[in-house]
Amino acid sequence: MLRDVYIQENGKIKLVSMDCSSIDLHCHSKYSNSFIPHKVTRFLGVRECYTPIKKISSILEKRGREYQTISDHDEVEGALELRRYRLKKGHEDVIVGGEYTVAIEPRCFDQTIHVNCVGLDYSNGATSPLPDHKVRTLNRKLLRQRECGEKEFIKFCKGEGVPYVKSHIALQCTPKKPLSGEQLYRLMEGEDKIELNGDSQLENLIELDIAQRNKLAICCGTDAHTKERLGNQFTVAWKLNSEGEPTPVETPAELVDAFINNNIGMGSTHSLPENITNPSLADIVFYQFNGTTKNLQRDTMRGSVDYVTYEWGWRKAIFLGIFVLPVALFNVPLVLPDFTAWGLGFGGGALVLGLSGTALFYKGIPATERQGDRKRAKKLYGGINEYIAHLETESQREGIIELKDQIEKLNGQIEDHHIETQEIYRHHANKELPILNPKLKGFTKLARWFVNLYCGENKEDLVDTSAFTQPIEQEPTEE
Ligand SMILES: [Zn+2]
Ligand SMILES: [Zn+2]
């Protein structure tokens, strides 16, 4: 299918029109459950995601994704069930994924990153999908490797031929001990691709910046934990035909192959407003790859509805019963007007109670979360730039020292009549080290501008937002 997609080429993000296949490379199912930290909430049946496999499958299909995957946290059962379900319906269009929480340093989960292992069932160059039990074995090995530190984990993936990409790397997974700029920069050294997410904002800009700086292929998934945003952002993949033209891949194995060979880019179902004809990176992220607070609030709301509507167990029944039964049976005005509980009875009453409780929170939570994320992202980006500035100064310092050495050697050799040349070299030798501005005024401005866009406050700082606001390259559209 012909789509407008973004790719990285020669260190620049470009908009191109391309015949390619698509897949939401990062989404979660009801099997994803390693991120509910509290025992009590876990006991009450609170999950990080409730979406059933069939629902995911039908939504992804409806939203035009030709291939499907699930990348649950440290879990492959959801993806395996999706594969079985699609096969039963006659479709061979699933790859099995897994999002692994990997300790950056061995056995220390204070700081972690998420690694999206893509197509576990096609690892090690398999051309036909590995059976369930082999995928499960590989999953168990990967789970053990998570503790050995990021370096070992990546080494293991490479050794076992497990295709992977570091997910939402600029999204600080461990807010208590966020990554430093240097850490993030080092984490991306030696990588050949980077993943953006549909629920990130400033983080996506940072990732596009890294993609340009390090010439990384870009891919994307929604990271949807409810059915709301599923399939809205996606990775595109292609293969080259005999004429060297990109064409859609035809099998899951070809899809994984395209991923490995970086024949990938990213697309979104959200389009740019018509008045933006020369989009910048900031425009692209803002309009097409952006978990706006509003969207995230809808996500939160959907999560609560899903909690009440999916998978009733005795714990959930008792919990909701304690609050709802008195209302329903004895007409006790707890939170709701009496008639609501009478009218709706137990199940409905529980639903309304759950929703009204959520409604109190849902407006606040994502907004404050976003603000925290933005702050951390800003700091991280500042850190990266400082680190790069430091690297540059170091290499320049080395260069000048080298030059001085050369001059000293030359001084011994040069004869008197070459006095002019000597002068030139001396001039170089005495040159001051360049002063780099560590305060990063440009970025502070950009960050403020970005935040203002979200909060709808003053837009005075729209000028001078450096690389992020310059128009990206676009392929001329063929007539
Ligand atoms: Zn994640
Ligand atoms: Zn995720």
Quickly describe the structure.
This protein is of the alpha/beta class and 479 residues long.
Q: Helix and strand layout, with pairings?
A:
Blueprint: E1 2-9, E2 12-19, E3 21-23, H1 39-43, H2 53-62, E4 68-70, H3 77-88, E5 94-96, E6 98-105, E7 108-117, H4 132-145, H5 150-160, E8 164-166, H6 181-188, E9 193-197, H7 202-214, E10 217-221, E11 233-240, E12 246-248, H8 252-260, E13 264-268, H9 281-288, H10 293-309, H11 314-330, H12 338-362, H13 364-413, H14 419-429, H15 441-455, H16 466-469, E14 473-474
Parallel strand pairs: 2-14, 4-5, 9-10
Antiparallel strand pairs: 1-2, 3-11, 6-7, 7-8, 11-12, 11-13
Helix pairs in contact: 6-13, 10-12, 10-13, 11-12, 13-14, 13-15
The structure holds zinc ion (ZN) (2 copies).
What does this structure look like?
The chain folds into two domains: about 1-290, Alpha-Beta Barrel (TIM Barrel); about 310-360, no CATH class. The protein contains 16 helices and 14 strands. It has helices spanning about 40-45, 55-60, 75-90, 130-145, 150-160, 180-190, 200-215, 250-260, 280-290, 295-310, 315-330, 340-360, 365-415, 420-430, 440-455, 465-470; strands spanning about 1-10, 10-20, 20-25, 70, 95, 100-105, 110-115, 165, 195, 215-220, 235-240, 245-250, 265-270, 475. Strands 3, 11, 12 and 13 form a four-stranded antiparallel sheet that branches. α3 links the parallel β4 and β5 (about 95). It is globular. Residues about 330-345, about 430-445 and about 455-465 have low confidence and may be disordered. The structure holds zinc ion (2 copies). One zinc ion binds near residues 99, 114, 167 and 168. One zinc ion (ZN) binds near residues 99, 114, 167 and 168.
